[in-house]
Amino acid sequence: MEWIFVVVMALLLIMGFPMMIPLIAGAMVLVFFFLPNLDPYILIQQMRTGIVPYSLLAVPLFIFAADIMSTGKTSKRLVDFVGSFVGHLRGGYAITTAAACTLFGSISGSTQATVVAVGTPMRQRLLKMGYKDSSAIALIINSSDIAFLIPPSIGMIIYALVADGANVGQLFIAGIGPGLLIFFFFATYAVIHAKIYNIPKVEKASWRERFVLTRKALLPLGFPFIIVGGIYGGIFTPTEAAGISVLYAIILEVFIFRTVKLTNLPKVAMSSGLVTSAVFILVAAGQAFSVAINRARIPHTLTDAVLGPDPSALTVLFIVALFFFVGCMFVDPIVVIMILTPIFAPVAIDAGVDPVHLGVVIVFQAALGSATPPFGVDIFTASAVFNKSYLDVIRGTPPYIVMLVIVGILVILFEDISLFLLRWMQ
C-alpha cells in the first residue's frame, strides 16, 4: 500500500506541477498515512538540512561564474581558438562544436549553460556549412553532456553531497576520462557524417591567425587548470575554487576583456540566483523525500527485489545505470541523483564498487538521460534557446544517444577509464 505515493506523484506530474511539488507531496503521503509515529515536522527540518552543507555553496558560485562568462565573449574566444586548429578538417565545424562544449563545460559545469553559450554561435556556423538544423542542434545538446562530467561538474558536487565517502576533488578528476572519450566518439562521427553528406571544408587558418586566436583564448583556457590544479594540489577546497572562479571570471570579462560592465553584474547575479533557487528547492525537496522513503524502508524493498541477495559489482552498475538513465529521461538529473543515490550507493559499495567510479557512472547516466527523449531537460533548453519545436530538436539525436550508450557501457566495464588519471596523479 505504501506505493500509493507513486500514484500521487505521477498524477501531480501529469497535471503539470513543478517537480518539487510531487516530491514534497509524496513524502507527506508516506508520513501522514504510513508512518504515523514520525513527526511531520521532520520533513521541514530535512528540507533545511538538505541545503545547509557548506559544499553546496559551490553550486551558485560556479553558476554565477558561468553566467558572467556566457554574458561576455569567453565562449566565442574558445570557439574561434578551436576552429583555427581543426575547422579546416573534414567535419571540422562539428569537431569544433564538440571541443568548444568540452572546454566551456570545464568552466561552467552545467549542460544547460553550455547549450546556451556554445550553441548560440555554433548553430549558425554549422547551418552555413550545410548541416541540417536537426543535426546541428543534436550535436550541441549531446556535446553539452560532457559539461556534466568534467570539472567543475555540478552533478559531481550533488553526488558527493549524498554519497558517503565520496571526495569532490577525486570525482572531478575521474570525470575527465569519460568526458574526453565522448569527445573522441563525437569527433569521429563528425568526420564520417561530413564525408557521407559531403560537407565542405573551410580554408585553413594561417599560423599567424592561430597565434592571435590562441593569445585571445589563453586566459579562459587557464580556468580549468586553476580549478583542477588548485583543488587537487590542496591549495583550496572545491567551494573555495568556486569563489576563485567568480573572481577570475570578473577579472577577465570586466577588467581585461571589458565585455561585461560592472553595472551588468547585478543583472547577471539575479539570473544566477533564479537558477540557484530552482536547484536548491529541488535539493531540499529531494532530501525530504529521501528521508521519507528510507523511513518506510522502500529502498531496501526495491534493491532486494531488483538486485537479489548477493549481486556482483557489474550487475549493480548496470542496474544503477538503467535506473538513472530512465529516471533522467523524465525528471531533472539533480532530483534523480538526490533520490536514487542513497538507495543504490550502499549496495554498490558493499558489492565492491569504488565510490568514485560509481559517482562517474551515475553522473554519466544522468547526463545521458538529460539529453534523451521524452523529457530530457536539455531538449527543452534547446527548444527555447533556438525557438524550435520539440520534434525538430530530437530528430537528430539517435546517433548521439547510441554513441553515449556505448561509452556508458565501456565506462562500466573498464573502471580505468574513469580512475586511470586519478591513480596516475596519486
UniProtKB/TrEMBL annotation:
Limits of the TRAP C4-dicarboxylate transport system permease DctM subunit domain: 6-415
Tell me where it resides. Answer: Cell inner membrane
Q: Where are the transmembrane segments?
A: 6-35, 51-72, 92-118, 139-162, 168-192, 213-235, 241-260, 272-293, 313-344, 356-380, 400-422
Main location per UniProt?
membrane
Lineage, top-rank taxon, reads Bacteria
The protein's matches in Pfam families, at most eight in alphabetical order, are given as: DctM (PF06808)
* Keyword annotations of the record: Cell inner membrane, Cell membrane, Membrane, Transmembrane, Transmembrane helix
The cross-references to InterPro entries, in alphabetical order and at most eight, read:
DctM, TRAP_DctM
Q: What membrane topology does the annotation report for this chain?
A: Multi-pass membrane protein
The name under which this protein is listed is Tripartite ATP-independent transporter DctM subunit
Q: Which organism is it from?
A: Evansella vedderi
